[in-house]
Amino acid sequence: MSIWEEIFSGELNPYYEINRKTPEISAVEDEICGIKGILEDKLSTDKAEILEKLDGKQCELEILMEKRAFTYGFKLAVMIMLETFKTDNC
């Protein structure tokens, strides 16, 4: 199966390929959870709900930015390949 077929069929998903757990990512996630826990303990129910909505919107924004970054990265890679084929250095 070609890479294009894998992408089309969903077998290859760049989002999941690059978002694997690393010690660095896990450390930041742990810090975020700790801070959220502190805030949730100190906030009223209404304010905790607002915090949860904010967290959801930040996740949405992160996904949108990752999509844009992937698209730009792909276009940049194609532009680099095209530039490579244009040069007479070979």
Q: What does the model show?
A:
The protein is mainly alpha-helical and 90 residues long. Helix content is 82%, strand content 0%. The protein is built from four helices and no strands. It has helices at residues 3-9, 14-18, 23-42, 45-86. The longest helix has 42 residues, at 45-86. It is elongated.
How would a textbook summarize the main sheet?
none
Rounded Rg: 20 Å
Shape category: elongated
Arithmetic mean pLDDT: 86
Q: For the terminal residues, how far apart are their CA atoms?
A: 31 Å
What share of residues are in beta strands? Answer: under 5%
Topology summary:
Blueprint: H1 3-9, H2 14-18, H3 23-42, H4 45-86
List keywords for this structure.
4 helices; single chain; mainly alpha; 90 residues; elongated
